[in-house]
Amino acid sequence: MKLAVFDFDSTLMDGETIDFLAAPLGLEAQVASITERAMAGELDFYKALRARVALLEGLEASRVDEICASLPMMPGAAEVVAGLTERGYTVVCFSGGFRNATKPACQRLGIHADFSNFLHAENGVLTGQVGGEMMYGEAKGDMIVRIQGLLGIGREDTLVVGDGANDLSMFAHADTRVAFCAKPILREAATHCVDTKDLTEILHIVDAL
User: Fold this and answer.
1) Which residues does the annotation mark as catalytic?
2) Domain, as residue range, for 36
3) Domain with 58 in it: what CATH number?
4) Which tens digit of pLDDT belongs to each residue from 121-155?
Protein backbone atom coordinates (compact mmCIF):
# COMPACT_ATOMS: atom_id res chain seq x y z
CA MET A 1 0.00 0.00 0.00
CA LYS A 2 1.13 3.54 -0.79
CA LEU A 3 -0.19 7.02 0.03
CA ALA A 4 -0.73 9.99 -2.31
CA VAL A 5 -1.75 13.33 -0.82
CA PHE A 6 -2.89 16.20 -3.03
CA ASP A 7 -3.50 19.83 -2.25
CA PHE A 8 -6.83 21.04 -3.66
CA ASP A 9 -6.74 24.69 -4.72
CA SER A 10 -4.55 25.27 -7.79
CA THR A 11 -3.58 21.58 -7.71
CA LEU A 12 -6.60 19.29 -8.10
CA MET A 13 -8.75 22.34 -8.89
CA ASP A 14 -7.79 24.98 -11.44
CA GLY A 15 -7.91 28.10 -9.27
CA GLU A 16 -8.54 29.18 -5.67
CA THR A 17 -11.96 28.41 -4.19
CA ILE A 18 -11.99 31.53 -2.06
CA ASP A 19 -11.34 33.71 -5.10
CA PHE A 20 -14.40 32.23 -6.82
CA LEU A 21 -16.47 32.85 -3.67
CA ALA A 22 -15.32 36.47 -3.44
CA ALA A 23 -16.34 37.27 -7.03
CA PRO A 24 -20.12 37.75 -6.36
CA LEU A 25 -19.21 40.27 -3.62
CA GLY A 26 -16.93 42.23 -5.94
CA LEU A 27 -13.96 41.37 -3.72
CA GLU A 28 -12.13 38.91 -5.96
CA ALA A 29 -9.07 41.13 -6.51
CA GLN A 30 -8.73 41.96 -2.81
CA VAL A 31 -9.00 38.32 -1.73
CA ALA A 32 -6.75 37.09 -4.55
CA SER A 33 -4.02 39.51 -3.45
CA ILE A 34 -3.99 38.03 0.06
CA THR A 35 -4.10 34.48 -1.36
CA GLU A 36 -1.11 35.16 -3.59
CA ARG A 37 1.00 36.44 -0.71
CA ALA A 38 -0.01 33.56 1.58
CA MET A 39 0.85 30.93 -1.04
CA ALA A 40 4.22 32.59 -1.61
CA GLY A 41 4.97 32.28 2.10
CA GLU A 42 4.88 36.03 2.70
CA LEU A 43 1.96 35.90 5.16
CA ASP A 44 1.07 33.61 8.05
CA PHE A 45 -1.44 31.15 6.59
CA TYR A 46 -3.81 31.23 9.58
CA LYS A 47 -4.01 35.01 9.67
CA ALA A 48 -4.40 35.21 5.89
CA LEU A 49 -7.20 32.62 5.92
CA ARG A 50 -9.14 34.43 8.62
CA ALA A 51 -8.72 37.78 6.88
CA ARG A 52 -10.01 36.41 3.58
CA VAL A 53 -12.96 34.54 5.06
CA ALA A 54 -13.99 37.66 7.00
CA LEU A 55 -14.49 39.38 3.65
CA LEU A 56 -17.06 36.73 2.68
CA GLU A 57 -19.47 37.74 5.46
CA GLY A 58 -22.99 38.10 4.11
CA LEU A 59 -22.62 35.65 1.21
CA GLU A 60 -25.52 33.19 1.09
CA ALA A 61 -24.54 29.63 1.98
CA SER A 62 -26.63 28.31 -0.91
CA ARG A 63 -24.58 30.46 -3.28
CA VAL A 64 -21.38 29.01 -1.78
CA ASP A 65 -22.55 25.47 -2.52
CA GLU A 66 -23.65 26.47 -6.01
CA ILE A 67 -20.24 27.96 -6.82
CA CYS A 68 -18.35 25.04 -5.27
CA ALA A 69 -20.36 22.49 -7.26
CA SER A 70 -19.09 23.92 -10.55
CA LEU A 71 -15.42 24.62 -9.81
CA PRO A 72 -13.11 23.71 -12.71
CA MET A 73 -10.96 20.66 -12.11
CA MET A 74 -7.34 20.71 -13.20
CA PRO A 75 -6.70 18.88 -16.50
CA GLY A 76 -5.83 15.27 -15.74
CA ALA A 77 -7.34 15.29 -12.23
CA ALA A 78 -9.68 12.34 -12.79
CA GLU A 79 -7.03 10.42 -14.72
CA VAL A 80 -4.30 10.82 -12.10
CA VAL A 81 -6.58 9.71 -9.26
CA ALA A 82 -7.72 6.66 -11.22
CA GLY A 83 -4.16 5.86 -12.27
CA LEU A 84 -2.76 6.10 -8.77
CA THR A 85 -5.60 4.01 -7.36
CA GLU A 86 -4.85 1.33 -9.96
CA ARG A 87 -1.21 1.42 -8.84
CA GLY A 88 -2.17 0.66 -5.24
CA TYR A 89 -2.26 4.17 -3.77
CA THR A 90 -4.68 5.46 -1.18
CA VAL A 91 -5.43 8.97 -2.49
CA VAL A 92 -6.23 11.78 -0.04
CA CYS A 93 -6.87 15.51 -0.39
CA PHE A 94 -5.65 18.13 2.09
CA SER A 95 -6.97 21.67 1.62
CA GLY A 96 -6.55 24.95 3.43
CA GLY A 97 -9.83 25.78 1.71
CA PHE A 98 -13.32 24.55 2.40
CA ARG A 99 -15.29 21.31 2.61
CA ASN A 100 -18.08 22.85 0.52
CA ALA A 101 -15.60 22.49 -2.36
CA THR A 102 -13.47 19.46 -1.49
CA LYS A 103 -16.29 17.05 -0.58
CA PRO A 104 -18.20 17.10 -3.89
CA ALA A 105 -15.03 17.29 -5.97
CA CYS A 106 -13.36 14.39 -4.17
CA GLN A 107 -16.49 12.28 -4.44
CA ARG A 108 -16.54 12.87 -8.21
CA LEU A 109 -12.83 12.13 -8.56
CA GLY A 110 -12.90 8.96 -6.44
CA ILE A 111 -10.56 10.29 -3.76
CA HIS A 112 -10.64 8.23 -0.58
CA ALA A 113 -10.83 11.09 1.95
CA ASP A 114 -10.66 14.89 2.15
CA PHE A 115 -9.54 17.11 5.01
CA SER A 116 -10.36 20.83 4.90
CA ASN A 117 -12.05 23.70 6.73
CA PHE A 118 -15.65 24.72 7.40
CA LEU A 119 -17.27 28.07 6.64
CA HIS A 120 -19.58 29.10 9.50
CA ALA A 121 -23.07 30.22 8.58
CA GLU A 122 -26.11 31.44 10.52
CA ASN A 123 -29.60 31.63 9.03
CA GLY A 124 -28.21 30.60 5.67
CA VAL A 125 -25.61 33.37 5.49
CA LEU A 126 -21.85 33.27 6.03
CA THR A 127 -20.72 34.95 9.26
CA GLY A 128 -17.14 35.51 8.12
CA GLN A 129 -15.85 32.87 10.57
CA VAL A 130 -14.00 29.66 9.76
CA GLY A 131 -12.82 26.57 11.61
CA GLY A 132 -11.43 23.16 10.80
CA GLU A 133 -8.50 20.81 10.36
CA MET A 134 -6.38 22.78 7.91
CA MET A 135 -6.18 26.34 9.23
CA TYR A 136 -2.50 26.47 10.13
CA GLY A 137 0.73 26.35 8.20
CA GLU A 138 1.79 23.10 9.93
CA ALA A 139 -1.62 21.40 9.64
CA LYS A 140 -0.88 19.31 6.57
CA GLY A 141 2.34 17.98 8.05
CA ASP A 142 0.59 17.03 11.27
CA MET A 143 -2.22 15.28 9.40
CA ILE A 144 -0.01 13.33 7.01
CA VAL A 145 1.98 11.86 9.91
CA ARG A 146 -1.24 10.70 11.55
CA ILE A 147 -2.52 9.12 8.34
CA GLN A 148 0.81 7.40 7.73
CA GLY A 149 0.57 5.96 11.21
CA LEU A 150 -2.99 4.75 10.71
CA LEU A 151 -2.20 3.09 7.39
CA GLY A 152 1.25 1.82 8.35
CA ILE A 153 2.86 3.67 5.46
CA GLY A 154 6.34 5.23 5.62
CA ARG A 155 7.65 8.35 3.91
CA GLU A 156 9.36 6.16 1.29
CA ASP A 157 5.90 5.10 0.06
CA THR A 158 4.35 8.57 0.26
CA LEU A 159 3.75 10.94 -2.67
CA VAL A 160 2.73 14.56 -2.05
CA VAL A 161 1.59 17.14 -4.62
CA GLY A 162 1.04 20.84 -4.00
CA ASP A 163 1.67 24.38 -5.19
CA GLY A 164 2.05 26.74 -2.24
CA ALA A 165 3.81 27.50 1.02
CA ASN A 166 1.24 25.74 3.21
CA ASP A 167 2.19 22.47 1.48
CA LEU A 168 5.76 22.64 2.85
CA SER A 169 4.84 20.90 6.09
CA MET A 170 3.56 17.79 4.30
CA PHE A 171 6.53 17.83 1.92
CA ALA A 172 8.71 17.24 4.98
CA HIS A 173 7.20 13.76 5.43
CA ALA A 174 7.36 12.30 1.91
CA ASP A 175 10.21 11.03 -0.24
CA THR A 176 8.40 11.89 -3.50
CA ARG A 177 7.48 15.55 -3.54
CA VAL A 178 5.89 17.12 -6.62
CA ALA A 179 5.67 20.90 -6.97
CA PHE A 180 2.81 21.44 -9.40
CA CYS A 181 2.87 24.81 -11.21
CA ALA A 182 4.22 25.91 -7.85
CA LYS A 183 5.58 28.93 -6.04
CA PRO A 184 9.40 29.14 -5.77
CA ILE A 185 9.31 28.39 -2.03
CA LEU A 186 7.75 24.96 -2.71
CA ARG A 187 9.83 24.17 -5.79
CA GLU A 188 12.93 24.39 -3.62
CA ALA A 189 11.61 21.58 -1.39
CA ALA A 190 10.45 19.33 -4.25
CA THR A 191 12.02 16.24 -5.78
CA HIS A 192 10.06 16.81 -9.01
CA CYS A 193 8.46 19.84 -10.66
CA VAL A 194 5.57 19.83 -13.12
CA ASP A 195 5.22 23.18 -14.88
CA THR A 196 2.28 22.44 -17.18
CA LYS A 197 -1.34 22.16 -16.12
CA ASP A 198 -1.54 18.41 -16.66
CA LEU A 199 -1.78 16.18 -13.62
CA THR A 200 -1.20 13.04 -15.68
CA GLU A 201 2.49 14.01 -15.67
CA ILE A 202 2.54 12.67 -12.11
CA LEU A 203 1.85 9.16 -13.39
CA HIS A 204 5.05 9.35 -15.45
CA ILE A 205 6.95 10.38 -12.31
CA VAL A 206 5.49 7.49 -10.31
CA ASP A 207 6.21 4.94 -13.02
CA ALA A 208 9.83 6.08 -13.17
CA LEU A 209 10.46 5.63 -9.44
Assistant:
1) 7, 9
2) 2-207
3) 3.40.50.1000
4) 999 999 999 999 899 999 999 999 999 999 999 99
